[in-house]
User: Fold this.
Amino acid sequence: MDWPQVFAKFKRSLQPQGLLAIITEGHLCGLSVADQVHQLVATFSTNQDFQPFSLIELLQSNNFFRIIGQQICDKTPFSQSLDDFVSSFHARNGLSIERMGIDKAQQFDLQISEIVRLITRNGKVHGYTQACVT
Assistant:
């Protein structure tokens, strides 16, 4: 991403004393199979050289962002069908069907369904997500 260009646009858009809040993605909580899901995602991801990073730390280290406060949001319950839960993984860059190919995507879907089916109740996956506002 071209951070200098992005933050120049933010600066033009904000009021002189305006603030930018960044909401980092919610993390799944309360799934007893989370470790198995993460392992399967790592195995099937097309981004095998991916290194986890903190967006906030990246922006701070390049002087684009300064933290003046941070709020970890309450856990928010979610419930969705097993099919929707499985499909949601394909919205991620490393697991898009276009990049994985249909055969690998179907293998992934089958394996993750087998894992997550163990914790479904009435065909639904129940858990919590938690985000952070910085």
